[in-house]
Write a structure and sequence with these properties.
By secondary structure, the protein is α+β, with helices and mostly antiparallel strands. The chain contains nine helices and 15 strands. The structure holds 2-oxoglutaric acid and fe (ii) ion. One of its GO terms (molecular function) is oxidoreductase activity, acting on paired donors, with incorporation or reduction of molecular oxygen.
Length: 322
């Protein structure tokens, strides 16, 4: 931290944990329990990790990157058809409107946010987008659900516990595609302000252009740079459910590279009607007091959207002072 309490500038470190997904899913009990242990340690100590050997084909990811590029290269008028409204709208596109934001300090990006589970939504153009995105989110969802099982075991529960408690079969999954234009296209500060994500785990894939940073011990640490790996971040509802054990990861994006950056981001959460509080298995009336008030997931999303405008966080509403 600097003397005024603000985090100091980014430091690149290579010690963000790396988890080998193939060990988690391997038939070997030893490999599996080592992976579960590593996931638990990464979630508790770092709140994030890189995931390698995840089995999502590189060609599929590359096609998604190319398709996303094609989407954002449509005209503003074409994109306006998918313009953002409410937080629970199935398709929300920023359509470059941030550019006219009077706040010159604002970091800039375009985004497209799709609700892809339990119902799948996608723009009807460019042609083939919907089929491709449907395949992509099917694959990333399978990875996320396997990771949640690993997280569940790492907390000392059976693998299916979190799925059952949080109704993940009807879980709310988004595909958010972020587009930070090349420096040549627009000479603006490109990035995303510090925040945490809602849901349990966020999976993020970048197109080889760095920018993601996570806050660790008061310093910004660059994340990414591992070939063909997903960046995985703890999110708000993992912190709530684990009663504060696995903290939601504060992250931001600062794009210094001149090339355009595209990220495919999947927040994975409980079903919208699930009331999420600390797991009853992690609290008791004596020593382990609940640290968060339960709140319905859909209400959390709505309240978070409102609170951001006031520079606050939904945690401010539900955290119980100790
Ligand atoms: O694009 C990135 O680097 C980060 C995106 C992100 O944090 C988000 O969409 O919530
Ligand atoms: Fe995020």
């Amino acid at each position: 931290m600097s003397s005024n309490g603000e985090p100091t500038c980014c430091e690149v470190q290579d010690s963000i944990p790396i988890i080998d997904y193939s060990l988690l899913t391997s038939g070997s009990a030893n490999d599996h329990s080592k992976a579960v242990q590593d996931i638990g340690k990464a979630c508790e100590d770092w709140g994030c990790f890189m995931l390698v050997n995840h089995g999502v084909p590189e060609t599929l990811i590359q096609e998604m990157m190319d398709m996303s590029d094609a989407f954002f290269n449509m005209t503003i008028d074409e994109k306006l058809e998918f313009e953002a409204h409410g937080v629970l709208d199935p398709i929300r596109c920023s359509a470059g409107l941030n550019l006219v934001n009077p706040n010159k300090d604002m970091l800039w990006r375009e985004y497209l946010r799709l609700i892809v589970h339990p119902d799948f939504n996608c723009p009807h153009k460019p042609s083939g987008f919907s089929e491709l995105a449907s395949e992509y989110v099917k694959r990333t969802r399978a990875v996320a659900m396997e990771l949640v099982k690993g997280v569940s075991e790492s907390l000392g529960f059976e693998a299916s516990y979190m799925n059952r408690e949080l109704n993940l079969d009807a879980g709310f999954q988004l595909l958010a595609i972020n587009y930070y234009p090349s420096h040549m296209e627009f000479d603006v500060s490109r990035g995303l302000m510090p925040h945490t994500d809602h849901g349990l785990l966020t999976l993020l894939y970048e197109n080889g252009v760095p920018g993601l940073e996570v806050l660790r011990d008061g310093k910004w640490v660059g994340m990414g740079g591992v070939p063909n790996a997903f960046s995985i971040l703890n999110s708000d509802h993992l912190e709530i459910f684990s009663n504060g054990k696995y903290k939601s990861k504060v992250h931001r994006t600062v794009v210094k590279d001149k090339r355009r950056r595209i990220t495919l981001v999947n927040p994975n959460g409980p079903s919208l009607d699930t009331i999420v509080g600390p797991s009853s298995r992690l609290v008791d009336g004596e020593k382990r007091l609940p640290r968060y008030h339960p709140m319905k997931y859909s209400e959390y999303l709505e309240c978070q959207t409102e609170l951001i405008k006031a520079g606050k966080h939904a945690f401010d509403e539900i955290r119980i002072p100790i």
